[in-house]
Structure formats: C-alpha cells, structure tokens
C-alpha cells in the first residue's frame, strides 16, 4: 500500500514485514550461544544485585526480598519466552523496538524505542556513578586517595581533608569508565564479548565465594519475621512490599532485554538467541535468590534501610580480609559488564531506528574496519559521560525498571499479535501453552508497574511526551517505510 493511500491516522501504525532488514546490515555475525549467555549474565548480575538488594529488603520486603526476586524472575520467564520466539522470527538489531515495528506499527515502535533510550542511557550513567564510588573506596583502602571534588557532581556536597564542606566539580571516574567501555565496543563486538566473558567469570567466582563463606555467618534470627507485617502503607512490607520490591529489583533483570539487541550479530540467531536469553535468566535467578538469602541472614533487614553498602557491611562481618577486597573487585567487574551490555544495547537500538529513517542516517553507519555502529557509540559515550559527570542521576535510576517493564509488555503482546497476523511464519522456538504465557507476562509486568511510585510514572510520561515531539517533528516525515 502506498503512503498516499494511507489516512493520516493509519499511517501511524504502518508495519514492517517480518523479512525486512534481516539480511546484511554491515554488522559482523560473531556471537555464539555461550557468548550470548555470558553477555546476558554480564548485564544482569551487577548493579541490581549489589545496589538494590539491600534497598528493597530494608524499605519494602525484609528477608522476603528473596521472594521478590522470584516474583520478578517469574515475570521475566514469561517475557523471556516471548523474547525468544520473536528473536528467532525477527533476528535483527533493535530488540523490542524492532518487534513492535513488525507487530504493532511505527508509532508504538517509536514509543518503545524512545523508552529504551531512557532505559539504557540513564541506566548506564547511573551504574557508572556506582562504579566510581566503589573504585574510590577500593583505592582508598590501598592508600590512594582521589581528589574529593573530582569524584562528585556539582550538585553533591563533599568533605575535603581539612574538614571544609564544598561541592563537587565532576565525577571523572564515572566518565572515564563510560569512555573506556565505549572505546572497547567501537573496537568490535567479538573483542567486547571476550573481555565480557573474563569479567563475568571473575564476578561469578566472587559471588560464589561470598555465598560459600557467608553461610557460616548467618544468624537465623534475622529471618524472623520472614515477611514483616505491613505498616499500613502500600509497599512497606507485607505482600504489597514484596510486589514493590519486585518492581524495584526488576532493574536487576534488564540483561536479556539488552541481549536481544545483538540478534543481528549472532551466527545462528534462531537457535542461539533462545539459549542465550533463557540460559542467562536461569543462572541469574539462581544467583539472586542465593545471594539475597545469605545477605539478609548476615545483616538484619532493618539495618539495611539506612546502609548505603549492605554488601560491604556483610563482608566486613566475616573478618576475612581477602574476601573484602575480592568482593569490591567483583562488584567493579559486575558494574563494568553491565555498562558494556547497556551501551551495546543502546547503540543497536539507535542503529535500528536510524536504518528505518526515524533518526538521522549517520547513526546507522558502521565502521568500515570494525563493523560496529561507531557513531552511535560515540554519541552515547559523550551523552552518558556528561550525565554521569555533572548530574545527580541516582533518582533517575528508578526509570530503568519501569522502562524495562513497558518493553516486556510490548514484547508479550507482540507474540499474541504475530500469532494472528502470521500464523504460518517459521518459529524456530515457540512459546508453549498457546496464549497463556504471553498473557501471564503482560499481567505480571503490569502488576509490578502499578506497584511503582507515582513520581516514576510522571517521569516516564514526561519523557514519552518529549519523544512524541521528536517523532512528529522528524521521524514521521523521514520514515523509510513512509517513503516506500
């Protein structure tokens, strides 16, 4: 159907065919199933585990934060099955954005793509600030002290060695790690995957050591009550607290969403993407449940509400000096691998949107030697570095959870839509149970979205309104599908 025969309203929902853009896009197919599992684990186990476990336990769920991880994992399992089916059918870069373009049309695809920009970019900037805090702590333990004003944003108060109170200048370590990871990604996906595999191995060994050595320091009294009674406020303990904690720690499961953006760099995406997605989800769930159970057994959940580093507190109680250093190194490895996959996913979503004409074409150019979307990488290197260096973005980190949940809902709905639109299309992997699991995925993710606080919803809506302005001002007029 030509663009001129479409009404203005129906043109907003024009869809791409399943076969569109599956061919050569200039990206090198270098990833196998083990690399994909490592990428998924690399992005998933990191900021969420080390930063959010204590927050969710102390403020929302108590020791039942373990159940919150299971609730989130179940919802992720439903969504992961749906991602696996769509990644096999539509093995192109762009993740939920590309799936939405095929199933629900251009406007919905733009909304989810714009949502993913926020999810990945703000998530990467937030994680880099945490990375900066831990590297500063590790170096201080070795007698190396970085200038206080150069590890904080201008909006943060810092204490100088002479006791003076002043404000920061820029968080340079946070900007440095973002630049370093971006440079690695520009160098090549294969090289990035190899570095990530080493980091993930170190990280898992450190977590295993924490669990193994921490078990003997568990005080069973810390598990009582396992589900603290609700305080009378929604989300503060009780069953509602578990649901809010699940929504909070959902940020910890962002990995396989970012993983699916690499479908066009996978050697056999129809076979390998389901292995990567479901394999990494299974490993991460086992790690999260075990880690949170040990952590809440060592440190009482009431103390975690006021402790910015409960993992460090727990390790200190073991009095094992080498483990204290190893945990900090493991946390740094965790944050680094999360940054790598978030920035990988971000650049691939931008790459896909630019190829469709919704963003300037320069973002779809690949490096002639490395075969990576290097201009997208450079753009987000600058953007995220500036955010991390100069803005107090910790609060915006909550946006990543609601953004991920929205993406998961779109993907689950997309599976149902394609079952109607293209029932005969090849499905190398098919979600079992007919429509049951996709519907359960929508319901469970929507339940966690509703449990999040109102301010998070306001931020999401404001960001989407800005995005609609960009779409109607540029994207709709330059859409490649609209010009076809």
TrEMBL record:
<protein>
    <submittedName>
        <fullName>Amino acid permease</fullName>
    </submittedName>
</protein>
<feature type="transmembrane region" description="Helical">
    <location>
        <begin position="431"/>
        <end position="450"/>
    </location>
</feature>
<feature type="transmembrane region" description="Helical">
    <location>
        <begin position="96"/>
        <end position="113"/>
    </location>
</feature>
<feature type="transmembrane region" description="Helical">
    <location>
        <begin position="400"/>
        <end position="419"/>
    </location>
</feature>
<feature type="transmembrane region" description="Helical">
    <location>
        <begin position="277"/>
        <end position="301"/>
    </location>
</feature>
<feature type="transmembrane region" description="Helical">
    <location>
        <begin position="120"/>
        <end position="144"/>
    </location>
</feature>
<dbReference type="GO" id="GO:0016020">
    <property type="term" value="C:membrane"/>
</dbReference>
<feature type="transmembrane region" description="Helical">
    <location>
        <begin position="198"/>
        <end position="218"/>
    </location>
</feature>
<feature type="transmembrane region" description="Helical">
    <location>
        <begin position="238"/>
        <end position="256"/>
    </location>
</feature>
<feature type="transmembrane region" description="Helical">
    <location>
        <begin position="456"/>
        <end position="474"/>
    </location>
</feature>
<dbReference type="Pfam" id="PF13520">
    <property type="entry name" value="AA_permease_2"/>
</dbReference>
<feature type="transmembrane region" description="Helical">
    <location>
        <begin position="34"/>
        <end position="55"/>
    </location>
</feature>
<keyword id="KW-0813">Transport</keyword>
<dbReference type="InterPro" id="IPR002293">
    <property type="entry name" value="AA/rel_permease1"/>
</dbReference>
<feature type="transmembrane region" description="Helical">
    <location>
        <begin position="374"/>
        <end position="394"/>
    </location>
</feature>
<keyword id="KW-0472">Membrane</keyword>
<keyword id="KW-0812">Transmembrane</keyword>
<feature type="transmembrane region" description="Helical">
    <location>
        <begin position="321"/>
        <end position="345"/>
    </location>
</feature>
<feature type="transmembrane region" description="Helical">
    <location>
        <begin position="164"/>
        <end position="186"/>
    </location>
</feature>
<feature type="transmembrane region" description="Helical">
    <location>
        <begin position="67"/>
        <end position="90"/>
    </location>
</feature>
<keyword id="KW-1133">Transmembrane helix</keyword>
<dbReference type="GO" id="GO:0015171">
    <property type="term" value="F:amino acid transmembrane transporter activity"/>
</dbReference>
